[in-house]
Amino acid sequence: MPTLDALIVDDEPAARRDLRQVLASIDGVRLVAQASDAAMAQQLARKHRPQLIFMDIQLPGADGFAAIDGLIGVRTCVIFTTAYAQFAVRAFEVGAVDYLLKPVDEYRCRRAIERARQIIVKDLLPVAELVVELEERGARVRIGVSQIRLVTAEGNYIEVEHGGGRGLLRQTLDGFLDMAPGQFLQINRSQAVRSSAVRSYSGNAQQGLRIFLADGTELAASRRRAARVTEVLRAAGHSRFAEG
Q1: Cβ atoms within 10 Å, residue 134
Q2: Looking at the domain 4-124, which fold is it?
């Protein structure tokens, strides 16, 4: 049974202490960090990459929902802990594994961790590569979606750029993104890019956000999407460079 790293987020020292004691009694869980607010939680989550985050909802500044919304690129299972039952529906709507009322009951905590463990194990299972068939130089070419770095909408088609060239796929951009959820970042109305293909970016929503791919390709993000694109690229570790 692999050990799961856990992060506790709660602004009350007593609540953190009580949850530490519960986790200490449960095998297969290792506490790696504790945070008292949303900003610290996001920083520690990116540093430690815990499989579990026990997140209080009422925090100083941004609440627990805003905290997990900022954890772009961090694969983790969130278990909300709170003294207020009225937040339960929203917690599950944002994808929480479970919702524990404080003081946290050890039995309920064990069940929540087991549910998270099942999700994590399932995510680790090998998944068959998604393959698409392109029209490329008069031929039909099959490639794995993981090879695609950039897609551009062209009417009822999208132009697909990949490691071996480019071709056309009879598909709308929205349909393609639905087919490969979470793999591409839409930067404007007609283009989506794989984050790992990005080298750097510059500018902002007001000045214009530009994205530079590893091969030198320059792309422009729309003003409406610029803030979200910047957030995702920053979370993924891409650097912003200043223009002089």
Answers
A1: 22
A2: Rossmann fold (3.40.50)
Nearest to 117 by CA among 79, 72, 67, 68: 79
CB 50 within 8 A of CB 5: yes
The fold for domain 127-183 equals OB fold (Dihydrolipoamide Acetyltransferase, E2P) (2.40.50)
Per-residue pLDDT of the chain (244 residues; tens, 9 = 90+): 578 999 999 999 999 999 999 999 999 999 999 999 988 998 898 888 899 999 999 888 888 888 887 675 567 899 999 888 887 777 777 788 899 999 999 999 999 999 998 888 776 555 567 888 999 988 888 899 889 999 999 888 999 999 878 999 998 999 899 888 888 999 999 999 998 889 899 988 788 899 999 888 999 999 999 988 988 888 777 777 655 3
Give the 3-state secondary structure of the chain.
Answer: CCCEEEEEECCCHHHHHHHHHHHHCCCCEEEEEEECCHHHHHHHHHHHCCCEEEEECCCCCCCHHHHHHCCCCCCCEEEEEECCHHHHHHHHHCCCCEEEECCCCHHHHHHHHHHHHHHHHHHHCCCCCCEEEEEECCEEEEEEHHHEEEEEEECCEEEEEECCEEEEECCCHHHHHHHCCCCCEECCCCEEECHHHEEEEECCCCCCEEEEECCCCEEEECCCCHHHHHHHHHHCCCEECCCC
Domain ranges of the chain: 4-124, 127-183, 197-244
Q: What is the pTM of this model?
A: 0.53
